[in-house]
Amino acid sequence: MPDPGTAAYLCVVGDPGEQVSESRQILRLAVPAFLALIAEPLFLLADSAIIGHLGTAQLAGLGVASATLMTAVNLFVFLAYGTTSVVARQLGAGSVRGALEAGVDGTWLAIGLGALTGLGVGLWAEPLCRLFGASPAAVGEAATYLRVAALGIPAMLVTLAVTGVLRGLQDMRTPLVASVTAFAANIVLNLLFVYGFGWGIAGSAWGTVIAQWGMALALLAVMVRGAGRHGASLHPHPGRVLTAALGGMPLLLRTLALRAILLVTTWVAAGLGDVPLAAYQVSYTIWSALTFALDALAIAAQALTGRALGAGDLRGTRSTTSTMLRWGVWAGAVLGALVLAAHRVLPHLFTGDPAVQRALAAGLIVVALMQPLSGLVFVIDGVLIGAGDGRWLAGAMVLTLALYLPLVLAVHAAAPRMLSSPDGAAHAVLWLWAAFTGFMAIRGALFWWRIRGDRWMVVGATR
Predict the structure, then answer these.
(1) Is residue 100 a contact partner of residue 230, using CB atoms and an 8 Å limit?
(2) Nearest to residue 281, comparing CAs of 65, 88, 3, 10?
(3) Cα 105 from Cα 112, distance rounded (Å)
(4) Do 202 and 149 meet the contact criterion of CB atoms below 8 Å apart?
(5) 403 Cβ partners below 8 Å, 6+ apart?
(6) Most buried by CB count within 10 Å: which residue of 44, 176, 262, 308?
């Protein structure tokens, strides 16, 4: 893997004296970010396919365990997003050493939070899985997966933090190499443990944990070498670590509200029965894959916005934002068209249950149609995170949660009537995704109002 250094950063963003076109700057960041991000959902899709052919209960259990695990981890996504913004601003202000030291502080914070979170999830795996109200068979499979997967939580948080550092330094290639290597190894390990050793759903969790730790240690080695080159301290500074934690609080609140939205949606899906839950698990995984693909532009937006505002370039910030918004909508339209064309074929890759296949196909229609809106939302989210507009993002997400709850609870209330009809599982999944599209529409309206103003554009090395 390449060492991060000034030369490496310049080959990504260009020499300050070189006139690099706006589109080239975006592509230099977005393309490797896209390849790195798409590696993870492709692995998750492969994981769902491997477990899905074990049975419907196992696939439903994976849905519950994944929702729990991703909630535990994504609560701390500010370790990546917040670090990207801070590091990019320091880079824009001309201080690579300051950027690296800010990243080191975030990594120490990740180590502490990861150890505590992993311990808690491992100890309370079964009670956490029961909260979703899934069938006893699905809960048993979910708890088995989650007990093992909890061992990888510290590695996942360290990976978030170090990836945020590298993104802020405009180095997207190192996370790309690490992601592709780790996720390819994970698929091989999953096949070996699940089918070769006959470990079932636990084998999939063990494969994931091993891959996660390998990725985290490799990225740590890269950051340590970069810090040594620029004279950045690797020791934890309690005051700066506390500052990093406090600075992440608005993004933590934003993420809590977002995870609440995803969790209540999974809770409603679990209450519909194993067939709708299994269909929702796969359709959600496909939606996540599309999200990661569109997030490549959001990550480019974080890095470029932070760097431009750190350098005091308001005009460049606005111009780059407009370009990325257009790209986000078009990218969403293309992805949506692909999913719509394949919505009857994809279900057969994940399950042999005809009822699950029909319900999954229905959900994928809505998933496909919402992609242009998703592209707009994710790019604006990235711009505002890059600008350090965390407080506004937190308030907007709490308001979005309040407005979304009536929509998703209406699906829950109508479930008995829908499930009693012919092909009721398909109707239930379709309406659940329709409610989720309402969430994206509310979020998009709020984001569009914010981005049209100028209050989010604050210049300087710190916000």
Answers:
(1) yes
(2) 65
(3) 11
(4) no
(5) 442
(6) 308
Distance CA(256)–CA(49), nearest Å, equals 29
Q: Which two tokens stand for residue 244?
A: 């990093």
Q: How far apart are CA 255 and CA 242, in angstroms?
A: 19
Could you give the angle at which helices 274-310 and 78-92 cross, rounded to 10 degrees? 20
Place of tokens 């960041």: 29
Task: Name the nearest CA neighbour of 148 among 189, 191, 205, 71.
Answer: 205
Find out whether 381 and 298 touch, Cβ atoms under 8 Å: yes
- Burial per residue of 401-420, b for 16 or more beta-carbon CB atoms within 10 angstroms, e otherwise: beebeebbeebbeebeebbe
| In contact, 244 and 90? CB cutoff 8 Å | no
Region label for 402, one of left (φ > 0), alpha (ψ between -120 and 50) or beta (otherwise): alpha
pTM of the model: 0.69
CA distance 322 to 300: 13
Give the tens place of pLDDT for each residue, 349-384.
Answer: 887 888 888 999 999 999 999 999 999 999 999 899
Residue 213, classed as helix, strand or coil, is helix
CA angle 300, 305, 309 (to 5 degrees): 155
* Averages of pLDDT over each 10 residues, the chain, 463 residues: 40 41 72 69 70 80 83 78 72 75 84 93 91 83 92 92 84 85 88 90 90 93 88 73 66 86 90 86 86 82 79 83 90 95 88 87 94 94 86 94 95 84 84 95 96 82 54
Which H or E run contains 211?
helix 201-229
pLDDT digits (tens, 9 = 90+) for 403-448: 999 999 999 998 888 877 778 888 889 999 999 999 999 999 999 9
Decide: 432 and 268 in contact? Cβ < 8 Å: yes
How buried is 126 (Cβ within 10 angstroms: 0-12 exposed, 13-18 middle, 19+ buried)?
A: middle
In one letter, which amino acid is 321?
T
Question: According to DSSP H, which parts of 346-389 are helical?
Answer: 347-350, 354-369, 371-386
CB 320 within 8 A of CB 300: no
Residue found by looking up tokens 């910030």 in the block: 317
Cα torsion through 382, 5, 40, 404, rounded to 10:
-20
Q: Are 271 and 133 in contact (CB under 8 A)?
A: yes
Q: What is the pLDDT of residue 244?
A: 60
Amino acid letter, residue 432: L
- Whole-number Cα distances in Å, 436 to 104, 179, 280, 311: 37, 29, 12, 38
